[in-house]
Amino acid sequence: MSLDREQKEGTEVLLMGNEAIARGALEAGVRVAAGYPGTPSSEIIETLSRFSEAGKLYVEWSTNEKVAMEVAAAASFAGLRSLCVMKQNGVNVASDFLLHLTGSGTRGGMILITCDDPGALSSVNEGESRHFARLMEIPLIEPADFQEAKEMTRWAFDLSEQIRNVVMVRSVTRMSHASGNVVLGILPTLKGKAEFLCDGPLTDPVRGPVTSAPVIAKHRLQQEKLQKAVALFEESPFNTYQGPEKPELLIITSSACTLYSREAVSLLRAEGRVGILKLGTTWPLPPALLKRHLLRTKNVLIVEEVLPFLEDQVKILCAEQAREIGIKTFYGKNDGALPMVGELNPDLVAAAIGRILGIDPPAIPAEYGEKLRGLTEFLPKRDQTFCPGCPHRASYWAIREALQRDHRGGFVCGDIGCYAMAALFQAAGFHTAKTLHAMGSGTGIASGFGKLGPFGMTQPVLAVCGDSTFYHAAIPALINAVHQRADMTFVVLDNSGTAMTGFQSHPGLDVNAMGEAAPMVDIAALCRAMGVPVTILDPFELIETRETLNRLLEQPEVKVLILKQSCALSPEKKGKKRFSMRVDETRCRGEDCGCNRLCTRIFRCPGLLWNQEQKRAEIDEVICAGCGFCVRICPAEAIRSEEAVKP
Amino acid sequence: MKETLAKDPYNIVITGVGGQGNVMASRVLSNMLVRKGFKVTIGETFGMSQRGGSVMSHIRVSSESVWSPQIPKGGADLIVAIEPIEGIRVLAGYGNRSVKVVVNLRPIYPVGVITGEEEYPSEETIRAKVTALAAEARFLAATEEAIRLGNPILGNIIMIGAVAGLGVLPIDRDLFESVIRDGMPAARVEVNLRAFAIGEAFVFSVKEEKQ
Ligand code: SF4
Ligand code: SF4
User: Whose CA is nearest to atom 2 of ligand 2?
Assistant: First the structure.
């Protein structure tokens, strides 16, 4: 059902946007692919890893996005086609290297794929990667459907080789995680050996050393490359116009917004009044092409998600060409026609077009609308929480109890991973996690809090960090905390995998992205090498964990506690119950118990239910993962476990 | 079995809760339709869905073109609810007078219900609300049937079988078999075929009863 080696060229298959991107890279003959997992980008490397083969295609999950980009760049320097993949905020991490790479230029075609997440469907930011293309002076292209996702990715490698610089391919959640029909192309025979030619002069782009110096000369060259890209963009088949010769309104759009715009026009039956200029090449804009279409009408609506990137560029172009194309009326983000935050959809675009042209979007019939009234309010919300059997719930429970006993108002600096849920949904982390920012930032922030004692701060500080996040960005912050003697307790929530994004490998595991055996880099050993005491515990051992935490909270400087227990969804655990659970009705005190339904009201594992009629807790057989931890939280010893019988 | 679509694009929403096999159900159904020669676009909202959140797949089926991965409001032709209140949630956003709905009656309680802060509607209320909002509504105990087959997750395939039973799409058991044979280990094919057949038979058995 998904992409495989056997599929013949010309076959039409259903592919996820990310699979289509991966297929495009394979059809381009990519040899090295590196990335760091992040929703919605992860399936690209996952798909490629299934096609990896020694000497043909090397695929890795790098420790972070900057390293991924460096690894891909090395392959390009050695003449191979390469790519790096990341989600929007990953580009921030890689951007320091990117600044220098775009100055030095590349050799084998190299593309940077970023998957943005308008609406923050699975992010803690609505970051925009498009601006980086402008900032770094490299071309930006954006597919608008699944076939294009494949074709444009393939073409991006050619473009990169033509201009000898990185090309940025941007997708969004609604492309990457959507699926559609794709006709497969030919997989090339891979040839060419890796060799880094570096004996020539500094200014020789194919035989010299690769550096961004001499800076001014290289910067000038970089801008010439960009102009070359613009010239190619003028003729690109990925920029298309659909609509009447002289529309009342011209929509300029790209990416998934193209599909929303088409649907919106069809919802309003405004095909005769609105034209859509869909741009595949969004930076730099090709001026002659834009001019041709801007001459069609006076009214321009720019449809794009999050910030007005395209809108700004179109306005600049219009100002430059005002003499020839006349004065335009612009609609988009800045005038409020479309919202400045959140993702778009066909309805929002239809409403905007409707307001501009005075068309009412199709309305819900009154009597049906009447039936819908109050419907959503009546439904219980579905907050996200940790999975049944999740070790993070146990870890936060121990932290909660330790902080309660500590009495000094201590708190946790959160970080990125499933355990971020503790900060996003306060009840999920029992109200302990109080900051949440970028990968590794919890550790850096805790390092800062840990120096505020002399200013009168008495609250103990904890930082949590997952195993994958530890390698990604927490190490420099931890070294800082150790060296500065910051007072903090550093808790590694080690669940043996990048659980949040689907168990990608990382340096703490004994297998790499291609399924080969790999040396493990031990977190405890690294911490000990920094000269700090390390304790390793199983978070399911509540009392020991809590008591250890209380002891560590009393001690000065950096202390490390590694809470090791694999994720409830990990392949070795998923679908297998360790314990079979039940609640002893005779012991459960129900609402009357002093603990006031501690298990269902506070602990909130979805495997535990509150039976309204019986006024007793019970186990939901379908949901409970059989981890056995709740036995430890019930003060009445009403929750019982038995070793499950192996099927 | 019709070979053409009742409407173009024909809009299907499959909804449920993370862990119920929503994404797999949408992929299987869509692959069946691609094999029939249709252009299918699936839009999936499954960000952090593994962790108990709502999951929703929008499937657009067309003879001609790619459609937006988000169905316009009020635009669903068929809603497949693997979890009952998620079905009502989708009806609130995408329902209309001609929508058909298939509901698995097994609730997955949200945390707010587990904690007693919120109340989960009774089965009667669920049936009444869905019936009032749909042109045609079918209710199945898919999870219970799936448990009987040995794995609650098979509820998603029972629901796909039910969709086939409705007869609104040109899909059948053979097509289902051809799709799953390509995508799953041979040992699991048999039980999936049984699940499909249970869903299909259920809808046939209550075909005449207009809800
Ligand atoms: S054993 Fe208890 S804590 Fe573990 S999953 Fe089941 S109900 Fe939840
Ligand atoms: S199971 Fe324990 S914690 Fe829950 S209500 Fe009964 S006595 Fe209280």
Answer: A634
